[in-house]
Amino acid sequence: GAIPRLLHNVIAANGRGTRPGRAGVEVAPGAAPELFGNIVAGNGVVEVAGAAATLLEEWRHHNTIGMIPTAKPVRPGGARRPPAPRVPAVK
Question: pTM value?
Fold first, then answer.
């Protein structure tokens, strides 16, 4: 049978509407899709539903699952970098 491939995607904020929460990725019984290089985060109740434990462990090794930043990163002390010095014009 066919093996679906999800490669290098961002799967986020799915299953978070007014209906009951759903997973970002739902795997049908007996299916073994390939996931590689994806970010699966910020979805419904769980990030991935229906995957066998061994498959989920493999996916965690090759994807970012369940980690989403809570705030925009800031520089220590909140300071911005000073502007680069001007380069003198060549005459």
Answer: 0.67
